Predict the 3D structure of the following.
Amino acid sequence: MKALQDKIREEGIVLSDTVLKVDSFLNHQVDAQLMWEIGQCFAAAYEGEGITKVLTLESSGIAPAVMTALALQVPLVFARKQKSLTLRDDLYVEEVYSFTKQVKSEVAISRKFLSSGERVLIIDDFLAYGEAAFGMARIIETAGASVAGIGIVIEKSFQNGADRLKEAGYRVDSLARISVLSPDGIQFVEE
Ligand code: G4P
Ligand code: NA
Ligand code: NA
């Protein structure tokens, strides 16, 4: 997506060879117009797939996911992160390990908001190693619903999340795919 690549080039700050800061439009301040274009792009990619729900993980996935849900005219559910909770039978809970932040957290969704037979589109802001997406997919499958695909705003293609998810059989659609992050610049995967 050209507008997204331009925005990343103009406003992205390379913090290291693995971390990109995009807090001016995605992770802190939010460019709502760009999020709407992103939502329409995911909606167009999944038109005809019978999507009944969009699922993301709080907090930074919510902006692109809510726009996708609006464009598809379906509800958005965001999984909540919690520090180890007592098991509750009204929740689906999965453990997700973040290599980037080196923390384990539990992500939870109320059973009320995910039913068997649903076709779910997962949306997230970043894809690194794929752990968050795998966690959401496990919850969807535990509920007897199916994963239609995974829509990612910024994929770091030099980390292995996209490869792992595709090997596991999931469809992955990333709007920006970064091949190199360096202080000299940001390179995108040639399409
Ligand atoms: P993974 O799910 O693909 O394995 O990724 P990982 O656990 O490594 O990511 C952990 C957190 O770090 C996620 O945010 C993710 O969006 C974020 N993240 C990963 N790489 C980058 C990066 O290069 N730049 C930025 N800005 N964020 C990155 P989170 O902990 O879920 O927090 P939130 O922002 O959603 O609140
Ligand atoms: Na994030
Ligand atoms: Na995220």
Remarks:
- The first helix runs from residue 2 to 11.
- The helical segments are 2-11, 32-45, 62-72, 131-142, 161-167.
- Residues 19-22, 27, 57, 59-61, 98-101, 125-132, 156, 161 surround guanosine-5',3'-tetraphosphate (ligand 1) (CB under 6 Å).
